[in-house]
């Protein structure tokens, strides 16, 4: 029995449907060179995301099962709840929305201890997501100290009432968890139900994320991405003032 071939997509070709993704490696769907903002929006609306290394073509993925965080199941540990209370009480950290998007992406792309010098957040990735941010589809949550220095944060893509998480970083303990806590509260307030986490990690599982069959994930995406989005230009979050 012949092995399925990886599909190549030219800039004018549509992405294949997600259910055609390979089983091994799990979720690999297609390859190409186009990473425009329009291509990213097409992909996210179909439950597909890019993930590749420098020197490779753009690889498109839709794994089965899919790791998601149901916002109703988000687990804030006791230590995180204590940190939230301390931040609100002492006013040492402040949390902002979409104030330092490019700095957050740069920090997420920086080498990390124990992971070598490689990163999947290439200059091509940065340029495409900066474009999405300027169009109002990519967003960041930032945690800053009292001097407005960036301590940590995360970024992702929002279409309709569906949020797709991409990456996070921290320069101090609990900072990335604090950013996620703030994002969950913000999304809940605007009628979101799910954050796409893409891949299974122990860290995400500890926060309440679980794997769901791809068919269920795609059903959620179809419903939630079609809803009208919030007015992100009017959104602001800041601890401890909020």
What is the topology?
Elements: E1 7-9, E2 28-32, H1 37-45, E3 49-50, E4 58-61, E5 66-70, H2 78-90, E6 93-97, H3 101-109, H4 123-134, E7 138-145, E8 150-159, E9 162-170, H5 175-189, E10 194-198, H6 202-206, E11 210-212, H7 214-224
Parallel strand pairs: 1-2, 9-10
Antiparallel strand pairs: 2-4, 3-4, 5-10, 5-11, 6-7, 7-8, 8-9
What are the salient characteristics of this protein?
Alpha-Beta Plaits; single chain; 2 domains; 7-stranded mixed β-sheet; 31% helix; 242 residues; alpha+beta; 7 helices; 4-stranded mixed β-sheet; Aminopeptidase
How is this structure best described in words?
This protein has helices at residues 37-45, 78-90, 101-109, 123-134, 175-189, 202-206, 214-224, and strands spanning 7-9, 28-32, 49-50, 58-61, 66-70, 93-97, 138-145, 150-159, 162-170, 194-198, 210-212. Strand 7 (138-145) and strand 8 (150-159) form a beta hairpin. It has a 7-stranded mixed beta sheet with strand order 6-7-8-9-10-5-11, with helices on both faces. A 4-stranded mixed beta sheet has the order 1-2-4-3, with helices on one face. The longest helix has 15 residues, at 175-189. It is an alpha+beta fold. Helix content is 31%, strand content 24%. The radius of gyration is 18 Å and the shape is globular.
